[in-house]
Design a protein that fits this description.
Blueprint: E1 2-4, E2 6-8, E3 11-13, E4 18-22, E5 29-34, H1 38-53, H2 55-58, H3 61-77, H4 79-90, H5 94-99, H6 101-117, E6 123-126, E7 134-142, E8 145-149, H7 155-168, E9 172-176, H8 183-194, E10 202-204, H9 213-218, E11 225-229, H10 232-243, E12 248-252, E13 257-261, H11 267-279, E14 289-295, H12 296-312, H13 331-346, E15 350-353, E16 374-377, H14 384-387, E17 394-400, H15 403-411, E18 415-416, E19 418-422, H16 426-435, E20 440-443, E21 458-459, E22 462-463, H17 470-475, E23 476-484
Parallel strand pairs: 1-5, 8-9, 8-11, 9-10, 11-12, 13-14, 13-19, 14-17, 16-17, 19-20
Antiparallel strand pairs: 2-3, 4-5, 6-7, 7-23, 12-22, 15-16, 18-21
Helix pairs in contact: 3-6, 6-7, 11-12
The structure holds 1,4-dihydronicotinamide adenine dinucleotide and the ligand O=C(O)/C=C/C=C(\O)C(=O)O.
Length: 485
């Protein structure tokens, strides 16, 4: 039986209170997770605080970057272990995690280090009445102890996306991975020790949100800043916790992302991209498309091609080389998505394909969190299924006539994370992209990531930007030193 312990001050820490970690593939027991109480969370925060004053705080930026590059290399050396752990927790196909989750998990430690090493700080000369002037020098210092609250959909990728820059900037971290996916974060604790990252720099506390490790950590007065990825409503709770003591926050929350497909789009490219954006990772990507708008001349053909491609998706275990579609992360999440499937029909949707819980033809698999990839048409724009984030493998496809109309449709949401525009007309692409209310707009692509660019959402999709130099704003304190000459 596997055990997932907390990682505090460089040591694995057991607790009396434990909870089960179960596979979404067949509900088999993966292991027991040791839940951190207030005592362990406090110990982790204290360890992180002290580490700022210890050897970690004395390292030069170059030395920190060398250490973090070593962490990236060690993740790659232990690639198979990370891959197996991630697939056990999430049920996602091995080839998907091997292509995205684990390589990005390692790359996140390298990408930011390089940006940081090459980023200048500002300097201004100020005229003074005595004509001698003054020099202003910007200096960035670490913010302190960063709480990282991570989700379950891309567990290693999204956790290291925060831990990498936080450590590169000289901070220390306490990570609370999702209760659904404790494995790869725990494994990273071993890697930190193997690479010689000083004790207390990287800490892990396991548990849930309310009345558990998540709340204890975000409410802890010695946490200096909180970075979070997950649901918008959770983001609001964390924002309230951060208000006490005026701690800084970075929130990357939900989305209800549109795809805009114009009649002049390359239909095969648009189908391939929309298939990925709606169905990859079983639709559990915050950037994923749940609303597809297709210009009327292309509508029927596009819908037919999407249905053909959805019919080809093969559900199966992570290790099945033919399978390209896994289960949802948990039975609880499956219930939520299945509820939306029922609601769609009540709201008047035509189920074009899918729409239910599949019979996997195997009693073991039927215990898992499987759901059918689904396409709907015919819903009014006021439907809850069109308005609310489902976070499952489903999308609604609707026709539109004009550019003005589709821009209004795309923006008629409380969210503003991402959008994809498909057209061969570059002027139109730029014109429309500029008017979309979202943090990220892809043209003729989706999830094409350059880690130097700003990442984050508008409206209720989040606060702040991470990635490249933008992460510096959150992970460092910018001090101005004014020197009178
Ligand atoms: N990347 C994204 O944008 C994600 C969005 N979601 C959305 O959120 C929905 C619910 O999934 P959950 O896992 O419940 O998301 P969540 O937002 O509740 O959980 C994300 C993380 O926050 C922690 N958390 C929850 N409540 C907290 C609190 N009061 N204080 C501190 N930490 C807290 C959780 O333990 C987990 O580590 C999904 O159905 C989906 O719609 C979920 C995961 C990722
Ligand atoms: O590429 C990234 O950094 C992030 C991708 C996906 C998410 O943020 C998400 O699904 O939450």
């Amino acid at each position: 039986m596997k055990e997932f312990k907390n990682f505090i001050q460089g040591e694995f820490v057991a607790t009396e209170k434990q909870f089960e970690n179960r596979s979404p593939v067949d509900y088999s027991l993966i292991g027991m997770v040791h839940e951190a109480g207030r005592e362990q969370v406090n110990a982790a925060v204290q360890a992180a605080k002290q580490a700022l004053q210890g050897p970690w705080g004395q390292l030069t930026q170059a030395q920190r970057i060398t250490l973090l590059n070593k962490v990236a290399e060690r993740i790659n050396e232990r690639f198979e272990e990370f891959l197996t752990a991630e697939c056990l927790d999430t049920g996602k196909p091995r080839h998907l995690a091997a292509h995205i989750d684990i390589p990005r998990g390692a790359a996140n430690f390298k990408a930011f280090s390089e940006t940081l090493a090459n980023h200048p700080t500002e300097s201004f000369r100020l005229d003074t009445p005595d004509t001698l002037g003054a020099l202003n020098l910007g200096q960035r210092t670490p913010k302190g102890v960063i709480a990282v609250i991570a989700p379950w959909n891309l567990p290693l990728l999204l956790m290291t996306w925060k831990v990498g820059p936080a450590l590169a900037c000289g901070n220390t971290v306490v990570v609370k991975p999702s209760e659904e996916t404790p494995a790869t974060t725990t494994l990273l604790g071993e890697v930190m020790n193997e690479c010689g990252v000083p004790a207390g720099v990287f800490n892990v506390v396991h548990g849930f949100g309310p009345d558990s490790a998540g709340a204890f950590l975000t409410e802890h007065p010695q946490v200096d800043a909180i970075t979070f990825t997950g649901e918008t409503r959770t983001g609001e709770i964390i924002m309230k916790a951060a208000a006490c003591g005026l701690r800084n926050i970075s929130l990357e929350c939900g989305g209800k992302n549109p795809s805009l497909i114009f009649a002049d789009a390359d239909i095969e490219k648009a189908v391939e991209g929309t298939m990925r954006s709606a169905f990859v990772n079983c639709g559990q990507v915050c950037l994923g498309t749940e609303r597809v708008y297709v210009q009327r001349p292309l509508f029927e053909k596009f819908l037919a091609r999407m249905k053909e491609e959805v019919a080809k998706l093969k559900l199966g275990r992570p290790e099945d080389p033919q399978a390209n579609f896994g289960p949802l992360v948990s039975l609880e999440h499956r219930d939520k998505v299945a509820h939306y499937y029922q609601l769609a029909q009540k709201e008047g949707a035509k189920v074009e394909i899918g729409g239910g819980i599949p019979d996997m033809g195997d009693p073991e698999l039927n215990r898992g969190a499987w759901i059918e990839p689904t396409i709907w048409t015919g819903l009014p724009e006021t439907a809850r299924v069109i308005k609310e984030e489902i976070f499952g493998p489903c999308c609604h496809i609707a026709p539109f006539d004009t550019e003005e109309e589709v821009i209004a449709l795309a923006n008629a949401t409380n969210y503003g994370l991402a959008a994809a525009i498909w057209t061969e007309n570059t002027s139109r692409a730029l014109r429309v992209a500029q008017r979309i209310e979202a943090g990220l707009v892809w043209v003729n692509s989706w999830f094409l990531r350059d880690l130097r660019t700003a990442f984050g959402g508008a409206k209720q999709s989040g606060i702040g930007r991470e990635g490249g130099v933008h992460g510096l704003e959150f992970y460092t304190e910018l001090k101005n030193i004014c020197i009178k000459l």
